[in-house]
Design goal:
This protein is an alpha/beta fold. The chain folds into three domains: 3-323, Rossmann fold (3-Layer(aba) Sandwich), CATH 3.40.50; 366-552, 3-Layer(aba) Sandwich (Rossmann fold); 566-721, Rossmann fold. The protein is 39% helix and 13% strand. It has a seven-stranded parallel sheet with strand order 10-11-9-12-13-15-14, sandwiched between helices. A six-stranded mixed sheet has the order 17-19-18-20-21-22. Strands 1-2-3-7-6 form a five-stranded parallel sheet, sandwiched between helices. Strand 18 (583-587), helix 20 and strand 19 form a beta-alpha-beta unit. The radius of gyration is 29 Å and the shape is elongated.
């Protein structure tokens, strides 16, 4: 059989496997896999450098299926290419990454062929995709990582990192604003190893894209600084190959290849309405499609003789050979640059250097104190000096989030060109450590995921309220279990004058609700140190540090408990003399200081009180029942929680009749201290709540809860539930 005939046979096998997966599941999208099969086949069979024996090889090319609803196409490729489930980073899995049984149980429980690709579940899936635009933005992070790895670790005669990053996108991906943010950043950084392939089939769920999407995408990307190439017919894989070759020789900018395809059969006169609208073809149309492709209409999941072998002879052999050459090169590199090789090993295993925390600061007691964002900046720089692959930045807010890396780089294992100052990642300097994301919160968080998927340890920062702009990317990071570090500052109404548009209220509760996200809101500088210690130890979870703009007192740890209790999520910070409190005062972050002041006053009055600092509900809920009972004794019914955020969830800890001093409205534009006083976040309010609960206890039982807002003698609006 000729090469042309084998190409056609392999392409049509991918198409019929996609048809059968969707038809068997009675769920899914067959159209894009059918139309885009020639494009994906050309890339994988002729260009992609990927070892099917080890999908974790560091210098493999990355393939991101941003058009995640076309997952049946990716699963067919992984199966026909013989990609193994086990990798050098995870040897516990057996057999193929995607078996025939998996294909036949597409979208069913337990199958590796999930509805949309899921990283960590199916070997060979580089990132979780599905929400449109996410894969494209994540691929930009992967491309930044490639440039950084090459600039940092490649040496003359030793090219260790030279891989390309490919992403397959559809019309929907290009409509999403996220992809525009990411494309703009990629063009600015001149990421020459990044190629997006745009399968332009002019169909979306509501019908033709002409009803809503008529822009000249190529012109837009040219304006971003991209090379833009066109393929008039997706079935012309030779033209696709020529475009990919042009990408390979273009080093100074990313490339967009616009491929015109026809959803469904892949032919202009055979567009099927079911395929176009993301539905199974149905039995009769399935039989007709198979016949059109030259397959037996009654044979399901057919793989003709020679298909697997043809993939193995090209895709497989190319990847195996390239990986073998890389291993030999890395062995020689290790002998000449043992320290750099050790760093690469640690990155791949998600480990930290020895004594990474040796330089962490300690903060003396100080009634004036400092903002937790300032303390965090000091800790971040101390860690970055010891962890060379810790890098990141903010969405144009680095000075405010205190995230610039400014430590003296002299003497660190930085590239030879480093002049001792903290460098930026820029179009002419990819080895930097500070990333300027611009005002692109959503792209920033997706890019951070791409960096983490490449083995780096990224941080991303902004004001806490602006997490509303990037929730989609953060959610996928949590879903994938990536150890991205988020630094969110200006954490409450205390930020003041910018007003309710910038004062977060509901965000803290929403992050606590996100599965897999470790959220920490430290109370003072030393809690910040311990929070960073927790965060850096995470290997399969993201973390959010929620930090204050305003100065917070640095607590006297000779009088109060050690901040090491942060590691357990909540701990007894101050306690009754006999360890048997009558009232519990609970808080996180800046409001802990209010509870401490109230505790001191209650103690002077002879009232047995306890202050519990609760920086992380997530970590506290992981503790055993004995520890949780030790911190929050069930027998103590008088409880007050204080937090300048939504009350949602605090009843878990204070009980149905506990006092919750919280926000039940948006904020106010005024100086921070005025805003706090207006909403009742002061010591007097905490004392009043504690005394009222103790009075109820002395009367033999709890009273009914009062209204959530009431006028107070001071004329301020109470945000307390008694």
């Amino acid at each position: 059989m000729s090469a042309v005939s084998l190409d056609r046979l392999c392409i049509n096998t991918l198409r019929t496997l996609a048809i059968d997966q969707v038809q068997r599941a009675n769920s899914g999208h067959p159209g894009t896999p059918m139309g885009a099969a020639p494009t994906a086949y050309c890339l994988w069979q002729r260009f992609l450098r990927f070892d099917p024996e080890d999908a974790a090889w560091p210098d493999r090319d990355r393939f991101v299926l941003s058009v995640g609803h076309a997952s049946a196409l990716l699963y067919g490729l992984l199966h026909l290419c013989g990609v193994k489930a086990a990798t050098s980073l995870d040897s516990t899995r057996d057999g193929l990454a995607v078996t025939m049984a998996d294909l036949q149980s597409f979208r069913q429980a337990g199958s590796r062929c999930t509805g949309h690709p899921e990283h960590g579940w199916t070997t060979g899936v580089e990132t979780t995709t599905g929400p449109l635009g996410q894969g494209l933005a994540i691929s930009v992070g992967m491309a930044i990582a490639q440039a950084w790895l090459a600039a940092t670790y490649n040496r003359p005669g030793f090219t260790l990192f030279d891989h390309r990053v490919f992403a397959l996108a559809g019309d929907g991906d290009l409509m999403e604003g996220l992809s525009a943010e990411a494309a703009s950043l990629a063009g600015h950084l001149k990421l020459g190893r990044l190629c997006w392939i745009y399968d332009s089939n002019h169909i979306s769920i509501e019908g033709s894209t002409a009803i809503a999407f008529t822009e000249d995408v190529g012109a837009r990307f040219a304006a971003y600084g991209w090379q833009v190439l066109h393929v008039a017919d997706a079935n012309d894989i030779d033209e696709t190959a020529r475009c990919l070759q042009s990408f390979e020789t273009t080093c100074d900018r990313p490339t967009l290849i616009v491929v015109q395809s026809h959803i469904g059969y892949g032919a202009p006169d055979k567009q099927d309405s079911a395929a176009a609208h993301g539905e199974p073809l149905g039995l009769e149309e399935t039989r007709g499609a198979k016949a059109f492709y030259g397959f037996d209409p009654d044979a399901d999941f057919a793989v003709p003789d020679g298909v697997r072998e043809y993939f193995g002879a090209h895709f497989g052999q190319r990847g195996v050979s390239a990986h073998a050459a890389w291993r030999s090169r890395f062995a020689a590199y290790r002998a000449q640059y043992p320290e750099l090789a050790a760093q690469i090993d640690q990155m791949q295993r998600c480990e930290l250097p020895d004594a990474w925390d040796a330089g962490l600061p300690r903060f003396d007691a100080d009634a004036k104190g400092l903002a937790t964002r300032d303390a965090s900046g000091q800790v971040l720089n101390a860690i970055a000096a010891q962890v060379p692959w810790l890098l990141g930045g903010a969405a144009d807010l680095a000075p405010s989030t205190k995230t610039p890396l400014t430590f003296d780089f002299a003497g660190t294992l930085e590239p030879p060109a480093c002049d001792g100052i903290a460098p930026d990642i820029a179009p002419v300097g990819a080895a930097g450590r500070n990333v300027h994301f611009g005002i692109r919160e959503h792209a920033m968080c997706a890019v951070a995921s791409g960096l983490a998927l490449s083995g780096l340890r990224p941080f991303a920062a902004s004001f806490f309220v602006f997490t509303d702009y990037c929730r989609g990317a953060i959610r996928l990071t949590a879903m994938m279990g990536l150890p991205v570090i988020y630094v969110w500052t200006h954490d409450s109404i205390a930020m003041g004058e910018d007003g309710p548009t910038h004062q977060p209220v509901e965000q803290l509760a929403s992050f606590r609700a996100m599965p897999g996200m470790v959220t920490l809101r430290p109370a003072d500088a030393n809690e910040v140190v311990e929070a960073w210690r927790v965060v850096m130890a995470l290997r399969d979870q993201p973390a959010s540090l929620v930090l204050s703009r305003q100065a917070l007192p640095t607590l006297d740890r000779s009088r109060y408990a050690s901040a090491e209790g942060v590691a357990r999520g909540a701990y007894v910070l101050a306690d009754a003399a006999d360890g048997r409190p009558d009232v519990l005062l609970l808080a996180s972050g800046s409001e802990v200081a209010l509870c401490i002041a109230a505790f001191e006053e209650l103690t002077r009055e002879g009232i047995q009180a306890r202050v519990v600092s609760m920086p992380s509900w997530d970590l506290f809920e992981r503790q055993d029942e004995a520890y949780r009972e030790q911190v929050l004794p069930e027998a103590v019914a008088a409880r007050v929680s204080v937090e300048a955020a939504s009350p949602l969830g605090w009843d878990r800890y204070v009980g149905r009749h506990g006092a919750i001093i919280a926000m039940r409205s948006f904020g106010l534009s005024a100086p921070g201290s005025v805003v706090q006083a207006h909403f009742g976040f002061d010591v007097a309010q905490v004392l009043a709540a504690a005394r009222q609960h103790l009075a109820r206890q002395s009367r033999g039982g709890l009273m009914m809860a009062l209204p959530s807002e009431q006028a107070t003698p001071a004329g301020k609006t109470s945000q307390t539930r008694y």
